[in-house]
Design goal:
Layout lengths: L3 H11 L5 E5 L2 E5 L2 E2 L5 E5 L11 H22 L3 E6 L9 E6 L5 H4 L12 E2 L2 H17 L5
Antiparallel strand pairs: 1-2, 2-4, 3-7, 4-6, 5-6
Helix pairs in contact: 2-4
Length: about 150
């Protein structure tokens, strides 16, 4: 099966995915297509598997550890109040984890709601030039923490 996740991982391996922040043990940390909140990232496993239960032993632990450690680096880089983590896979049936920084200054009516209540169509699209400084700062924080592969 070829999903968007498969395509993005193939692009990351080929060096043609502009959203790549860094290679980590379990895969790739990338920017979200729409920055519904500033710093929205995804962790994509490499190799791609169907879901979390398809990973076994050390691979499962590495993915979950990378997800949490990437969240810690996101906290340090963004100054967010917290990180929301989601693994869904309903639309794209391949494992990927969403990492959403959540901020104290989000609109009151959205601050405590799931991120999916935001207007995704109105969100700023990823832009390689605009997002480059953030990506470099996050990559440096990941490297400082020993998380890059």
């Amino acid at each position: 099966m070829s999903t968007l996740i498969h395509q993005r991982v193939a692009q990351a391996n080929a060096g043609t995915n502009p959203r790549v922040i860094a290679r980590v043990r379990s895969g790739w940390l990338v920017m979200g297509d729409r920055q519904v909140v500033s710093g929205y990232c995804l962790l994509l496993p490499d190799p791609v598997v169907s879901d979390l239960n398809a990973l076994q032993g050390a691979a499962r632990g590495a993915f979950l550890s990378d997800m949490i450690e990437a969240g810690e680096a996101l906290l340090a880089t963004t100054g967010a109040a917290r990180i929301n983590y989601e693994i869904l896979g309903n639309l794209e049936p391949a494992l990927h984890a969403h990492l959403f920084p959540r901020y104290r200054d989000e609109p009151a009516e959205l601050r405590t709601r799931p991120i999916w209540f935001y207007d995704w169509e109105a969100a700023r699209p990823f832009d390689p030039q605009t997002d480059r400084p953030f990506m470099e700062a996050l990559a440096a924080e990941l490297t400082r923490r020993g998380l890059t592969a």
